[in-house]
Amino acid sequence: MTPLLLGSALNPINSTMIATALVAIGEDFHVGAADTAWLISAMFLASAVGQPSMGRLADRLGPRRVFTAGALIVCVAGLLGALAPTFTLLVVSRVVLGIGTAAAYPAAMAMLRAESRRTGLPTPRRILGRLSLAALGSAAVGPTLGGLLAVTTGWRGVFAVNVPLALVALVCGLRWLPADPGRGKNGPAPAATGDAPTGGSLDPLGIGLFAATLTTAMFFLLRLDDPRWPLLAPTVLLAAVLVWWQLRHPAPFLDLRMLARNRALVRTYLRHGLTYLVIYGVLYGFSQWLEQAHGYSSFHAGLIMLPMSAAAACCSLAGARTKGIRAPLTIAAVALAAGGGVLLLLHDGTPLGALLFAGALFGIPQGLAATGNQAAVYAQAPADGVGAAAGLQRTAQYLGAISASSLIGLVYGRRATDTGLHEIAGLGVLLGVVLLALTLTDRSLRTGAARTADG
Predict the structure, then answer these.
(1) CA distance 444 to 261
(2) By CB atoms within 10 Å of each CB, which of 11, 19, 21, 244 scores lowest?
(3) Residue 387: how many other CB atoms lie within 10 Å
(4) Which residues form the Major facilitator superfamily (MFS) profile domain (predicted)?
């Protein structure tokens, strides 16, 4: 598990580590905040496309090959960013970093499923919980690590640190990860685990159409405060072509027929995306409100948000120890609605204790939803497609993140206010109730129906 946990931490830590280096980067390259924001958006876009794409490759070529290739790509991206002479190359390095770090999580899920089928034993829930904890924990320490590197080595250290981290993951992976099944002339040989043969085309056109559709859709979502309506036409056209091609292809990148039959998996994606829309909305919106409306410094606002990260980590561990899936997801939905209700009561004179409590309350759904939905995807995905399915789960999460950032711009405008925070809170209450209904009415989440396909 060591290389899988190290690799799975690289994407979330890079998503948050850059935050404390943006000002220094802007000063060095003489660009403003609107330009440096591309360093965040570029990686989100690349990761949203890269997660299911890498998962597809892991299912077809083998998870160990994809994991090691991803680690090498991260090394290249780290060097490119650390040595970038122009801002454009720095953005390119973030795109490459998003692609490279996208490999580890879906490869880990595919590898765990393969090992489970090889041994005939279900993957322990605590193992899946460790993957969630690695992501949550690394995202939480990212800003602190980024600030430390920026102060001691300069902002280029935020990129350069990826080289030793990826090399450690690569060496550990080569040493400890099980070898992939052999490949014949026509593709991968059937695994000795009893899986169906996974040979066939990688469907590069399908991957390209998916990437183009998702990219145009995300560009539209990024500016809900000033909608770019001309982007809707190409988005719809690309989506239509994607659907047409996937239905015609014998081994499609997105198995739409499988998704149509596997409604439980689609509901899991919907739950995950809606949950993280609220979580990211609070993560970004609450911290901004603490600074602009409450008068806290960036450092103190970060300290106030720490209970949220701590609660998320604790609930992730607790969720990993539960046997069922419905109970933790139900608690997550209730906590999401309750957290929104608490935010509705906050104002610029709210005492510190209440602010800490509000943040901690939102850590509960963050931890429980992460482990619960991950376990649901693992149980509901086809045996030979768990890598791509896990990647699509992360895509749903990134869509929620981008929608949340657009929502914040829409309700806050130029400055965070009590009214804007209360609008985000109201959405949290509403979506919490929706998620509760989606969870309670989903029969696939019952203990008997939700156990892993290996059991």
Answers:
(1) 13
(2) 244
(3) 33
(4) 1-444
pLDDT in tens, 48-82: 888 888 988 888 889 999 999 999 999 999 999 99
| Domains of the chain, first to last | 1-180 (1.20.1250.20), 254-455 (1.20.1250.20)
pTM of the predicted structure, to 2 decimals: 0.77
DSSP annotation of 123 reads P
Which 3-state string (H, E, C) describes 168-194?
HHHHHHHHHCCCCCCEECCEECCCCCC
Confidence (pLDDT) at 33: 61
> What is the distance between the alpha carbons of residues 392 and 390, in angstroms, rounded to a whole number?
5
In one letter, which amino acid is 394?
Answer: R
